[in-house]
Specification:
It contains nine helices and 16 strands. With 306 residues, the protein is α+β, with helices and mostly antiparallel strands.
């Protein structure tokens, strides 16, 4: 039997012991299952890398986008495959890949032994030497500030899900954000832009709000799309949200610009700014080098229809 390591986050909003037992039982019929309970996000990455190096074929993450992100980071450079068993608040990557938005249903799909497929990532190298990844999004400045503030109230995050992120964003826009001045410089090739926030999107669309999509560009490129927020005013906020949800042209909003089809960028901050990946706060950085990493890992998800 193929080996499968099941890495679970019991703190995830949709996690229950009963669901975990169901998942383990379903997978145990077709895989040799090893169950791991990391006590720290970085331990999930280490456990993944260790399992992949010793011949485990599949590393399955049962939790939210945070544990999936850490597992993906541990899979880079290996032949093992990522499997997503959604049990989090928003389960963004699962929605993008059309994986059932329930851990038990996703386990049943995985038990049918679908073949692995390549999955691209966003690579982030920080000035502290840390190597980070995003499976669908990376943000610095305003975007990461929303994540940082939302994470401070874990109860509201668990109980309200995407609504909590939305309320946090609106509150910050109405208070702190409208007074912000550009505090970082984005370098793409010969182009340099001052900004208060940068959002990098991979895959179209992604979302923190259940079935509601979020787009930084009207059409997705095959690599990275970047939304640069030079400044933002309260009166522009409704237009920004409408375009983000319905795929409008964000570059038509004053002080916002969209750079399409980017494979590398460097961001220099005047002082430290927060960095987030897949809705999880990583660290504060003064510089980050962000690159598109095609076919970085293998993952198991339904075949996309042509």
């Amino acid at each position: 039997m193929e080996k499968l390591t099941l890495i679970a986050n019991p703190a995830a909003s949709g996690f229950t012991g009963g669901k975990h037992r169901q998942v383990a039982s379903i997978l145990g019929k077709v895989y040799d299952v090893d169950i791991q309970w990391p006590t720290h996000p970085d331990q999930a990455t280490a456990l993944t890398a260790q399992a992949a190096a010793t011949g485990t074929a599949i590393i399955a993450g049962m939790g939210g986008d945070g544990v999936v992100n850490r597992i993906a980071a541990g899979l880079v450079g290996s032949d093992a495959a990522l499997a997503v068993l959604p049990a989090g608040t928003t389960n963004v990557l699962a929605r993008i890949l059309h994986i059932p938005n329930d851990a038990v249903k996703a386990a049943r799909m995985l038990a049918e032994r679908p073949p692995p497929q390549p999955l691209s990532l966003i690579s982030v190298k920080t000035d502290s030497g840390q190597q980070r990844y995003g499976t669908f999004a990376v943000g610095l400045g305003l975007d990461a500030d929303v994540v940082e503030h939302a994470e401070r109230n874990s109860h509201r995050k668990r109980s309200m899900g995407g609504l909590h992120y939305g309320q946090t964003a609106v509150r910050l826009f109405l208070t702190d954000f409208r007074r912000r001045v550009p505090d970082m410089t984005l370098h793409i090739g010969d182009q340099s832009v001052r900004a208060v926030g940068v959002m990098i999107q991979l895959h179209d669309p992604y979302t923190y709000f259940g079935p509601m999509p979020l787009r930084v560009a009207p059409e997705s490129s095959d690599i990275l799309d970047v939304l640069v927020i030079e400044r933002i005013s309260v009166r522009r906020l409704p237009g920004v949200l409408t375009r983000a949800v319905f795929g409008g042209d964000m570059s038509r909003v004053p002080n916002l610009s969209v750079i399409h089809g980017v494979d590398k960028m460097v961001i220099d901050a005047d002082t430290t700014v927060p960095l987030q990946g897949d809705g999880e706060l990583f660290e504060k950085v003064e510089q980050a080098t962000i690159t598109f990493q095609p076919n970085a890992i293998n993952a198991i998800y339904p075949a996309r229809q042509s």
